[in-house]
Amino acid sequence: MRMHPFPVATAFQKTELPCGLRIVTETIPSVRSVAVGLWIDVGSRDERDEEAGISHFIEHMVFKGTERRRTHQIAQRIEYVGGYLNAFTTKEHTCYYVRVLDEHLARALDTLIDLVFRPRFPDREIEKEKEVILEEMKMYEDTPDEYIFDLFEAVIYGEHPLGRPIVGRAETVRAFNRAMLVDFMMRQYTPFRMVLAAAGNVVHERVVTLAARLLRDVALPAGDQRVRLPVPAYQPAKRLEQRAVQQAHVVLGGRGYDMHHPWRAALMVLNTLLGGGMSSRLNQNIRERYGYCYNIYSFVNLHSDTGDWGVYMATDPGRVERVVALVERELDRLVREPVGQRVLTQAKNQVKGSLMLGQENMSNRMMRLGRQELYFGRYYSLDEALAEVDAVNAALVQEVAKALFAAPLFSRVVLLPK
Fold first, then answer.
1. Domain limits at 307?
2. Is residue 208 domain-shared with residue 325, that is, in the same domain?
3. Is residue 205 domain-shared with residue 243, that is, in the same domain?
4. Could you tell me the pTM of the whole model?
5. Same domain membership, residue 375 and residue 242
6. How many C-beta atoms lie closer than 10 Å to residue 354's C-beta?
C-alpha cells in the first residue's frame, strides 16, 4: 500500500490500494456530512459500436439488485438515514455517489462497493430497463434544446464514439443481454481505472481501512488493456433537420481544447465573456438589444484528448440567419479587438466566484476530487485554479479567439419546425 501524503496544511490525502484503486479524500471538520463517489474511468467513448449505450445501461442496472440486496433495499439503505444515492455517465467517466451524515460513512461505502462489484443483472430486469431507456431516448428527442447537442456532437466528432449519444441507439439497447453487461464490466471496471473520492467530515485512514476491508472478499478484474480510439481530424460541416417544434434551435461551434491544454483557463474566461451569463456579450447584444432570443449562451466541453465549444440559440425560424450573423459578429469582434481591462477583470471574477462558490457544497468538492485524479493523477488546489485564472490577460484571450473563432472552422446544426 503506497501512501501519497500532501502537506499537513491541506486537508487532502491519497492512498493507492494494492489492487490499484486510488482513494482521495478532503477532510472538512466544520461540516456534519460526507459525499462519497466511486469513479470509473470509462464512459460512452469506450464502447464498441455494437455496445453503444452500454455504460449508461449498466449505470441503471446496478440499482436493480446485487448479490446482497434487492432493488428496494438498495434505495432504503441510504434514504432511511436521510442520505442521497445516485449515479451518472459521461463520455469518459461513470460515477456512483452517495451523500450522508458523517456517522453513516461505513454504510455509504458498503452500498457503493456492493453496487459496483456485486450486481446481479436479472434477465427480467434487463428487459424492463430496455423499455425505460427507450423512453428516455424519446424524452431527449422531444426536448429540442437537448437533442440538438446530440446532433452537434455527431457533426463535430463524426463516426468516433464521442459523436454518439451517451444513451446509445435503440437497436443496440434492444440487443443488450446479461453476458454483454458482465463482459463489459470485466473488461472496463478494473480497479486501476477506479477512484474512490470522499469530501466532508471524514478521516482519510478510516476511509482506506473500510474500503480495503469491503474489497477483501470481492473478485476484482485484473489488468488494464484499454486503448481509446484517437479522435479524427476535424472537418467543419453543416446539418439541418426538421421536427415538430415551434422555434428554430441552432448550435454554431467547432473543436476546442482538451483538459490538459495550457490555454484552458483562458478559454473559460473567453466563454464567460462571450455567453456565460446575463452580462455576457451574446445576452446583452442579441437578447437585450434586439429581443431575438429568450435563450442564448455559449459552452465549452473539455475531454482528455480533445474538446469542443459552441453557441446555442433558440429563435423564430425567420430570424435564424440574422441571429447567426449577429453571433458571428460578436465572435469576430473578439478576434479583432482586445478585451478591455475592466471587462476582463469582471469575467475573471465571475469564473473565480463560480469556482469558489461551488466548493461550499460537499458533493461538488467530491466531484472535483474525482475528476482531478482521473484527468491529472493529482490534486489541484483551489489556489492553483484561481492563480491560473488570474494569469489570463487580454492578449491571451485574443489569441484563443483567433485560434478557435475563425469562420471557416465553424460547424452549424439547425433544428427547424416542419
1. 238-417
2. no
3. no
4. 0.94
5. yes
6. 13
